[in-house]
Amino acid sequence: MSEAKLQPYRYHLLVCTGPRCAPEVSDQLFEKLGEKLKARGLTSGAARVKRTRSGCFAVCKEGPIVVVYPDGTWYRDVTAEVMDRIIDEHLAGGAPVRENVFHQIEADAATCAATAAEQ
Questions:
Q1: Strand blocks (E) in 1-119
Q2: pLDDT tens across 16-28, in order?
Q3: Low-confidence ranges of the chain (pLDDT < 50)
Q4: Chain-wide mean pLDDT for the chain?
């Protein structure tokens, strides 16, 4: 059996499409996301972005939820307009859309590392 070589991704978006996370909105976001990424040239080469439907993240109250890896940025209340900003500002520009970020894994890791160094 030959090994399949996967092309690297710059970012991986997990879009909650669970039954409690505004599914009618999140399903539409996910469907349109593929078209938007392609239109902005983010489906191939070094800027390639992967998108995946995900089940519940257990923070449905502020959904739809979108998580961006590898930097671990969690977005809440993602509308079509917010998704456009995430694509343009975060995925293409490298700057998270702060108004909709409610959790940042890198920031938490840095805080934990700083706290551990102090002890």
A1: 11-16, 49-54, 66-69, 73-75, 101-104
A2: 988 877 777 889 9
A3: 109, 111-116, 119
A4: 85
Eight-class DSSP state of 115: H
Query: How would you write 32-53 as a 3-class SS string?
Result: HHHHHHHHCCCCCHHHCEEEEE
pLDDT in the model for residue 118: 53
Q: How far apart are CA 108 and CA 91, in angstroms?
A: 21
pLDDT of residue 90: 96
Place of tokens 């995900």: 54
* Residues 6 or more apart whose Cβ sits within 8 Å of residue 73: 67, 90, 96, 101, 103, 104, 105
The tokens describing 58, both together, are 């257990």
Residue with tokens 């160094």: 117
Integer Rg of the chain from CA = 16
Residue 56's SS3 state is coil
Residue with tokens 């900003």: 85
